Amino acid sequence: MPGVVSLDTLKIHHSLPIRLYDPAINYFEDNPFHLVALETARMVKVRFILNVVQDIHKQIMGAVAGELKQAHLDGVEICRRENQVDVHGLADLIIASPGETPRDIDLPQSQKALSVAELTCRPDGCTFFLVAEAKNVIPQLFIDRMHRQSRPKR
């Protein structure tokens, strides 16, 4: 959707629940978040894309270009090849951080770090979530949900 919708529309799209039941990391093929973005791009007749894939240091690892769906799939393959790791067993304790700015600019961006943590932590384990640079106020909806919970839920 970037480049074809307003910033307000983009914010709304990013506020939708993207995972109904399971953690969303590496969840691409039937991901409702992605499907809405793809549908939007098709509505405005996007016929060509050019994307770069960056590593955690913002260095370009690869570039993809071409027809919308195929070029995006090619980019996903680069990401999986370069970033996917095998995890052998679940941990008792996870310390999760989104990394530096802009990944920790606010709660919606920062919470992406929890996707990996909840896949790699035992159900009865503990996760610490560290966010260093969050500049925006924590949304009241999030605060209310945290107060209603007696303990973290999967």
From TrEMBL:
It comes from Enterocloster lavalensis. This is Uncharacterized protein.
